[in-house]
Amino acid sequence: AAKQQGKDGISFFDPHIQTAVTQGLQLEQELRQALEEDQFALFYQPQVDLKQQQIIGYEALIRWQHPEKGLQAPLSFIPVAEECGLIVPIGYWVIEQACRAIKHREEQGLESRFIAVNLSPEQFKDPQLINRIRDILSRIEINPTLLEIEITESSLIEDVEQAVEVLYHIRRLGLTISIDDFGTGYSSLAQLKQLPVDRLKIDRSFIIGLASDPDDQMIVEAVVAMAHKLGLKVVAEGIETEQQLAVLVSCQCDIGQGFLFGRPEPESLHSVESLREQHSIESVKEQGFVVQ
Ligand code: C2E
Ligand code: MG
Ligand code: MG
Ligand code: MG
């Protein structure tokens, strides 16, 4: 059989590429079905006020209960969903679920806590974004400041002017805005100053070495100082050890998130068994979480 070659010498019929394309298409098909059949779930990971030593909110992290493969982590399907555009409807499902969870807490008479959702760059570029969020908020009435939008630094850099405009619209709806994975995207301080942002989430890569690498400690200290001067709160993600926590507390970091406080869990564990949350905080305290 004739093997057709592209200009760059890559065969159009390379069996590996063929397989990858077929798998991508199959995944896309399965994702469509997942939306229709409600196979997605949000898991919630607590965020802790480091001064008050209290859970003040959650990050909502998507999971896919695949009928054959079981629970799937976002990295196994979000990139494909972004490529084929399905991230846009999936993203609205996420925002709606988060609003329902906020409402649910309110109806149960639990104290209000914010929920942060991740917004991918594709969603950020969707011209319907603001209308859709407004529509969700009109159907599910919540205090909009309790809904937090996390956007990565990199999605802001592509087109700063457009990003600033979208962020202002989001801000006008009353939502809280946070920059995710901060420190990995080379955004300048000048850009940051223009943005209507409430929080910076320092990327986990800077937290990992916090107890051992003086450079990481310096970076975190500088980020916190700068953020505070700009009137922003700082969230540290990926806190796993007491040592990391101690450094963050000494750097005046405002909010913490990580396995040390709790893993992402289904909503039922948070709202019904709220005792559990107390436990995770209590156990942190018992292990010597003291604020100087
Ligand atoms: P992210 O927004 O930076 O979320 C934090 C990730 O770090 C989560 O992974 C979380 O489980 C993990 N993590 C939290 N604490 C620790 C820790 O102490 N140690 C370690 N090793 N990991 C920790 P997850 O749930 O697998 O999500 C991965 C990424 O997928 C997220 O990174 C986010 O970019 C994306 N993602 C998750 N849910 C959604 C969604 O609903 N929409 C979109 N567009 N992206 C999402
Ligand atoms: Mg995030
Ligand atoms: Mg993050
Ligand atoms: Mg991250």
Automatic annotation (TrEMBL):
GO cellular component term, pick one: membrane
A GO molecular-function annotation: cyclic-guanylate-specific phosphodiesterase activity
Keyword terms: c-di-GMP, Membrane, Transmembrane, Transmembrane helix
First-listed, main subcellular location of the protein, grouped into a coarse class: membrane
Localization in the cell: Membrane
Biological process terms in GO annotation: signal transduction
Keyword set includes Transmembrane helix: yes
All residue ranges annotated as the EAL domain in the record: 24-278
Listed name of the protein: cyclic-guanylate-specific phosphodiesterase
Organism: Amphritea balenae
